[in-house]
């Protein structure tokens, strides 16, 4: 009986691994970005061409950040958690990219799915451990996670300087991916 139990566990793990690869490889295909100078289609939503839904959240270390206050800047809105291995893997690249591009009007907003964490202090400890200097926001009520449909994390939205959603990316982002997505928008 134990032999079948182990085999079943292996099948389940392989299935989860396969789903993760499918999710990361096939669902992340990016459409070319049309016009980077458009003001969007006038609708608020998370689809490409929509004005990104506004929110205001508490920042680790104090203060609040409101998405609409960042108009005029390119924004990577990254939904993540400290316990998520792909999220942890992308953080060093995100930090490097932010440091290299913040003077050019690039902002990375890390929205932590705080309701899934052991405590807000665990998030603050993570930020300190990884030396993260871009804004990390706490989403304890899943307000932003629900609006931006963070079903699989990390999930990132690329928002242009007019506040319009230009792209969505599911999975860990590298510096190269961020550069390719942001260089194509206004």
TrEMBL record:
The keyword Disulfide bond applies. It holds the Pfam family AhpC-TSA. InterPro entries: AhpC/TSA, Thioredoxin-like_sf, Thioredoxin_CS, Thioredoxin_domain, Thioredoxin_ResA/DsbE_sf. Residues 46-186 form the Thioredoxin domain. Keywords: Disulfide bond. It comes from the Bacteria. PANTHER family: THIOL:DISULFIDE INTERCHANGE PROTEIN DSBE, THIOREDOXIN-LIKE PROTEIN YNEN. This is Cytochrome C biogenesis protein. It comes from Brevibacillus porteri.
């Amino acid at each position: 009986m134990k032999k079948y139990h182990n085999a079943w566990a292996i099948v389940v793990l392989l299935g989860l691994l396969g789903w993760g690869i499918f999710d990361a490889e096939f669902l992340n295909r990016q459409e070319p970005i049309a016009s980077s100078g458009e003001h969007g289609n006038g609708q608020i939503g998370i689809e490409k061409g929509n004005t990104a839904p506004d929110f205001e959240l508490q920042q680790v270390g104090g203060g609040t950040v409101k998405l609409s206050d960042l108009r005029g800047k390119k924004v990577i809105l990254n939904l993540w958690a400290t316990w998520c291995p792909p999220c942890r893997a992308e953080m060093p690249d995100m930090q490097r990219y932010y440091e290299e591009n913040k003077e050019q009007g690039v902002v990375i907003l890390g929205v932590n799915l705080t309701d899934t964490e052991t405590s807000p202090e665990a998030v603050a400890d993570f930020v300190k451990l990884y030396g993260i200097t871009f804004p990390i926001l706490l989403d304890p009520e899943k307000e932003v996670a629900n609006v931006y449909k963070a079903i699989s994390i990390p999930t990132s939205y690329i928002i242009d300087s007019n506040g319009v959603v230009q792209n969505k990316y599911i999975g860990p982002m590298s510096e190269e991916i961020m550069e390719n997505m942001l260089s194509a928008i206004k």
